[in-house]
Amino acid sequence: MSNKMIFINLPVADLDRSKGFYEALGWKVNDDFTDQNAACIVVDDNICLMLLTKDFFTTFSKRPIADTRGSIGAAYALSLGSAGEVDVLTDAAVAAGAIEEVNDDKKAQEAQVGMHGRTFVDPDGYQWEPFYMEYPGV
Fold it and tell me: Predicted confidence band at 34 (pLDDT cuts at 50, 70, 90)?
């Protein structure tokens, strides 16, 4: 395991609903870092989501929490091992309550570089972009 990890801190409206959503994607809850204020969701060995109640999240910054349902501040792209994995993850997300966004212009650009990607927005308004791209020489 690399000594570098990324923890993405996300404020959520309903901690239990959000935990259930990400568990439906096949990601695991790390109970050692989960309580009534936060849940650690393990995406893989080097990527974790920290789902934080909005009240708890406000202790990390004096800036107001963005309304992610009405606007976008970031898109979380996640490289996967195959186009099939992209489809399985996105289909699971939609089945668990996400909304899939389809952008035909983006799909055409991706096809030109040999990429397969899809986009979904989770119940808290966060945009996820799982993708697969075969990297020459890798």
Answer: very high
Both 36 and 85 in one domain: the answer is no
Number of neighbouring beta carbons within 10 Å of residue 127: 18
Instruction: Please tell me whether residues 29 and 90 are part of one structural domain.
Output: no
Q: What is the CATH number of the domain that holds 108?
A: 3.10.180.10
- Predicted confidence band of residue 111 (pLDDT cuts 50, 70, 90): confident
Is there a domain that residue 63 lies in? no
Residues 22 and 110: their CA atoms lie apart, in Å, by 26
Pick the residue with more confidence: 60 or 112? 60
| pTM of the complete model | 0.86
**pLDDT given at position 114:** 84
Q: Which residues are within 8 A (CB) of 82 and not within 5 positions of it... i.e. 6 or more apart?
A: 132
Whole-angstrom Cα distance, residue 15 to residue 114? 37
How many angstroms separate the Cα of 99 from the Cα of each of 16, 41, 90?
A: 19, 20, 9
